[in-house]
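Notes for week 9. Today we move from apo structures to complexes. The key idea is that a small molecule is not decoration. When we ask for a structure prediction with zinc ion present, the ligand SMILES becomes part of the input, just like the chain. The input block below holds both the sequence and the ligand string. Read it once before you look at the output, and try to guess where the molecule might sit.
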Amino acid sequence: MRIYDDRYNRERLRFHVALRFIRLEARTQTIRRWTGLTDDRIRKLYRSYLADDARPLVRHRGKSPHRAALFLRSARARRESALLASLCRLLGALPEQRGPQCSLTLPSLRRAELLCQAYETYRALVGEALLTFEHAVFLLTTLAQGAELACGRCHGCHALVVIDRWSLGEPRCSVCTQPATDP
Ligand SMILES: [Zn+2]
């Protein structure tokens, strides 16, 4: 019975995570990679979700974000990436170990839940979010791989900032970058 219960609970968790990903407008390939569900099961989940929920759902079919530079391209992008990365680290979604193999070992149901929690908190904190959930998945993956982006510490206040791995400048958060104003 124990084995049956464990398996049953795991399947429940798998569907729970997939539904949470659907609500956050994740792409089918992302749901498949993180939950291990087949495309057919995901399609059925989409259908049952739409039947239960009156809210319109955006289903993304195109390419996932794939350029790390987008997290650093504006002050707002840097500020929101730093917040999201901080939440991923605080909640434990970002693994301690970094490396190229991380994109393979990263997806798990437990980490998926932590990532959802980090992204939902980010959305609640910023109001109008610049970054989508697909951006969050991409940011987490890129930070875990550590080839293009890394977590750095602001030289002014030690807050976590997302930095270009090969940048030589001193990292600074958005607050410490602002010009000093007269008292
Ligand atoms: Zn700072």
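The CA atoms of residues 8 and 130 lie 37 Å apart.
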